Amino acid sequence: MCGIVGYIGKNKDIRIGLEALRRLEYRGYDSAGAAWYNPEKREIFYIKKTGRIDNLEKAILESNLNLIGNPFVMHVRWATHGGVTDYNAHPHFDCQKEFFVVHNGIIENWAELKEKLVKEGHKFISECDTEVIAHLIEKYFQGNLEEAVRKTLKEIRGTYGMAIISKKDPQKLVVARLSSPLLLGIGQDETLVASDPSAVITHTRQVINLDDNEIAVITPTNFHILKEKPIITIEWTPEEAQKGGYPHFMLKEIMEEPEAIENAIRGRLMIEEGSVKLGGLDVIAEKLREINRLILIACGTASYAAKVGEYMLEEYAGIPCEVDIGSEFRYRKPIVDEKTVAIFISQSGETADTLAALREMKKKKVLTLGITNVVGSTQARETDAGVYTRSGPEIAVASTKAFLGQLATLALFTVYLGRQKEMALVMGKRIVSELAKLPELAKGVLKSASEIEKIAEKYKDFKNFWFIGRKYNLPIALEGALKLKELSYLHAEGIGGGELKHGHLALIDENFPTVAICPSDSVYEKMVSNIQEIKARNGPVIVIATEGNEEIKDLADDVIYIPKTLEMLTPILATVPLHLFAYYVAAKLGCDIDKPRNLAKSVTVE
Ligand code: F6R
Questions:
Q1: Residue 223: how many CB atoms within 10 A of its CB?
Q2: Cα–Cα distance between 121 and 110 in angstroms, integer?
Q3: Backbone phi and psi for residue 247, each to the nearest 5 degrees, phi listed first
Q4: What ligand 1 atom has the least distance to the C-alpha of 602?
Q5: Residue-wise pLDDT tens digits, 260-298
Q6: pTM (2 decimals)?
Q7: Helix residue ranges, H only, 499-569
Q8: Mutate to test the pocket of ligand 1, among 328, 329, 348 (most ligand atoms within 8 A of CB)
Q9: Among residues 352, 358, 405, 532, which is most buried (max CB within 10 A)?
Q10: Which ligand 1 atom is at minimum distance from the Cα of 302?
Q11: Contact 278/55 with Cβ under 8 angstroms?
């Protein structure tokens, strides 16, 4: 989604801002802009351009404007209000071009505010909701920027992370947050602000996450927030945020899937006790003993992890589970009680729909638990307790390794709860020992990458795909289909194998291939019947099967093998080839893999 960068301090060249802005490119955007206060001219210069940051940089360099700028604000925009135009790009400014604002989020009452401001004589030049902020600040400014911002925030309704500079109060960068992430990167005589830690890590790892309703006033040598906040250290290295020699972040991230599993389980398995340690749950350990129902809430890929979690938790922890997507759950009237726990799963920890559901559950006094990748994210801070997936930075827009981290964490959580309930020691030991083997097994699957690439070549020109699976691997069919459609823009649908005969078979012919996730598990025979139904109608079939299953070759057009593991853990291994398949098809079609069209990394708007 949109990204913010701001700066004030010793370095005076605005190009450091462009470099920081580039680190937000992965989030997906359609335009970019910059505004900087030039102390010599005592003016704010600005340039806004649709398209890539390269366009913005080119325009800045060709403009002959003085590149000394301190403070400055920059932004990448993903359009919500108003089309993709230079005017609608941020920063936005007031009538006199004295106040410049970059903003993530949505101002819900912008139309009524705009109408009022227009009546008062303000002239608007964009269709973007953010522009009202600049005009309100202009209206309220009486010599002190933070005071004007404070008054402005009282008028607006909606969500925001914002950064503001003004030539009327030029020694300040003022930032504010409500439901849209914003952090300060504290350097030596310099402070960067950003909506995402990736933007600041080449400058500093010392950051302060702003909380909702906080305003920070930053000067070249100091900063002031309304309340005291701890400085925390970002654990990611800048190198981790690079492509590591791969042509795309996504391929790098798929190749890191064994590591993501390893990181999720490291130090958490207690093999002898047949149990797991999850330190983040210590504070609610007693309460968890009492629970009798789980609600798992997430969006997109993370919701498929939740669905796998439902199967695991019901089968092995014996707790009734319900899965819902954040965008639906927030509008339901869920029936909950003091023995219900709501689990929120999110890579970014900033997904607006998931956070809205979380806040709804908190209002109802439900115990909330987060499975999150980004340390210090809103979800991590607002849940009562949680477990980090520790998957490392995920830069490609489409989630891959973080999904594996979520699945592994849900398996851990299943053992954690199961052992408190009915799960026998022997079963606990079995799951934990199998979990320990998974990173190596996943590395084995990656060795088939070139085979999978050949299969991708064979199928890349088909326009429609089914993905089928049953039980634990039904959600994996959904994930395989989502990944293929978002990366390659081909039509793909995931369904339960048993559903085929209820309508979907009508589409099967020689031009409609199916990817069938068919490990040797409790529903293997049923899946084989489904594959037969497809073959009887001349549909090509690629099967994901368990190593050693030779008979499946008679039925399938192509087979990709995964190693044997416990049934509940098969989704973890079956996902790896599906991610590779989607990647290679998209690569062969020349798609923009790391930043698919129309998509954004963290969806911070409803
Ligand atoms: C798909 C994908 C999305 C995200 C979804 C939730 O590849 O990445 O479906 O899974 O937007 O995002 P998080 O996990 O950040 O809450």
A1: 18
A2: 16
A3: -65, -25
A4: 15
A5: 999 999 889 999 999 999 989 999 999 999 999 999 999
A6: 0.77
A7: 524-535
A8: 348
A9: 405
A10: 10
A11: no
